[in-house]
Design a protein that fits this description.
Elements: H1 7-24, H2 28-34, H3 39-47, H4 65-79, H5 81-101, H6 104-116, E1 121-124, E2 140-144, E3 147-158, E4 165-171, E5 182-188, E6 194-199, E7 210-221, E8 225-226, H7 232-268, E9 270-271, E10 274-275, H8 280-309, H9 314-339, H10 349-359, H11 367-379
Parallel strand pairs: 1-4
Antiparallel strand pairs: 2-3, 3-7, 4-5, 5-8, 6-7, 9-10
Helix pairs in contact: 1-4, 4-5, 4-7, 4-8, 5-6, 5-7, 7-8, 7-9, 7-10, 8-9, 9-10, 9-11
Bound molecules: acetoacetyl-coenzyme A (CAA).
The site of acetoacetyl-coenzyme A has 23 residues, from helix 7 and helix 11.
Length: 380
């Protein structure tokens, strides 16, 4: 076992740290306050190689692997979780399944556009009737010649407002069990009959957009099927195993931001004639935050490492997401407490981190769903 980073991994971490410091940190509060989609920041991420972490160089990607991506995502999310989730979905939920399941034509067309940041990707699984029970989705696609005709409404689509390519999971066979009759389709923005519906107003990650997608008699070429017809649920689940490593990385980044802000504030803020960092009440909070972050970080890197090796990682990804998201929420709460009244003000970044942390226990599978995945693995 070797915990040292390779030179390439150090390089991508340092490059992401620079991007976070120069581009994201000065704008994160404004992105959150105005609910501004970080499109400009996404394009810049593309120019710096962060929109194609998993894409091979021959398709224009930076091909740094899952460990490299996790290291970069820690840094990016430490500065701006809205940009973080935009990049996580784009890399883990769109480029990754396209690379694994796409035809040569699909890969040649889309991977260079995704990797350069020219096109932003979105992943659309959930509906009003299917959240945690993802296989219950109803949006239908009926074969008509060399097209599928799609009808229905999808919900909770990250980056829906700005994406150019959507991986949409639809029901192609209603007469088999729920998980067996689902297909993944590549849908381009601008396809007639496809529109972006309501945009949600959220508690946190307010720069990221979360939208409804509406399909009305929308004709999608059969050549846009990703993988095999009726094999979409397996693709959705396998993809989410990787996505959960991305959200766990986000959670670690948010937790680190909370710790960093708390250390700074505790050294500056004086009460009873001393910096509050000299009181054990504060030291224990700092120690607990630091220890939990170390544990979560190692779990994320182990899951990413297994994925890079091509080994099973559903269990490890679920464990990493469970622990990292709980750590982010713990650190958000403690960071506000260390700051006292100041932590409750928008003037200090921990207020934003506290709100941003909350979603990490919900999207890409709730804490309860991670426990379900873990328990099924342990009891099988
Ligand atoms: N990899 C590959 N295949 C998998 C798999 C995996 N990780 N997990 C399940 N499958 C396969 C199974 O092998 C099974 O296939 P067979 O019948 O051929 O064996 C099939 O899928 C059905 O599996 P289950 O019986 O386990 O399915 P289930 O209906 O019980 O659901 C679940 C399992 C874990 C609860 C799943 O529904 C789930 O993960 N729910 C949460 C959904 C979720 O995370 N949504 C997030 C939305 S996306 C989002 O938030 C993104 C964003 O924009 C930020």
């Amino acid at each position: 076992m070797d915990f040292h980073l390779t030179e390439d991994q150090k390089m991508i971490r340092d490059a992401a740290r620079e991007f976070a410091r120069e581009v994201l940190a000065p704008r994160a509060a404004e992105i959150d306050r105005d609910g501004r989609f970080p499109m400009e920041e996404f394009r810049e991420a593309g120019r710096r190689g962060f929109a194609g972490f998993l894409v091979p160089e021959e398709h224009g990607g930076s091909a740094v692997g899952n460990v490299g991506m996790a290291l970069a995502m820690f840094e990016i999310n430490r500065a701006c979780a809205s940009t973080g989730v935009t990049l996580s979905v784009h890399n883990s939920l769109v480029s990754a399944p396209l690379l694994l399941n796409g035809t040569e034509e699909q890969k040649a067309k889309w991977l260079p556009l995704l990797a350069s940041g020219e096109v932003l990707g979105a992943y659309s699984l959930s509906e009003a009737v299917s959240g945690s029970d993802a296989a219950a989705l109803r949006c239908s696609a009926v074969r008509d010649g060399d097209h599928f005709v799609v009808d229905g409404t999808k919900l909770w689509v990250t980056s829906g407002s700005h994406a150019g390519l959507f991986i949409v999971f639809v029901r192609t066979n209603p007469s088999v069990s729920n998980a067996k009759g689902i297909t993944a389709l590549l849908v381009e923005k601008g396809t007639p009959g496809f529109s972006v519906g309501k945009k949600e107003e959220k508690m946190g990650i307010r720069g990221s957009s979360t939208t409804e997608l509406v399909f009305e008699n929308c004709r999608v070429p059969a050549a846009n099927v990703l993988g095999k017809v009726d094999d979409g649920f397996r693709i959705a689940m396998h993809t989410l195993d990787g996505g959960r490593i991305g959200i766990a990385s986000q959670a670690v980044g948010i937790a680190e931001a909370c710790l960093e802000a708390s250390v700074k504030y505790a050294k500056e803020r004086r009460q009873f004639g001393k910096p509050i960092a000299s009181f054990q009440a504060i030291q224990w909070k700092i120690a607990e935050m630091g220890a939990r972050i170390e544990a979560a970080r190692l779990l994320v890197l182990r899951a990413a490492w297994l994925k890079d090796l091509g080994e099973p990682h559903s269990f490890e990804a679920a464990v990493a997401k469970l622990e990292a998201s709980r750590t982010a929420n713990f650190c958000g709460r403690e960071a506000v407490q260390v700051h006292g009244g100041a932590g409750y003000l928008v003037d200090f970044p921990v207020e934003r981190h506290f709100r941003d942390a909350r979603i990490t226990e919900i999207y890409e599978g709730t804490t309860e769903i991670q426990k379900l995945v873990i328990a099924r693995h342990l009891l099988r």
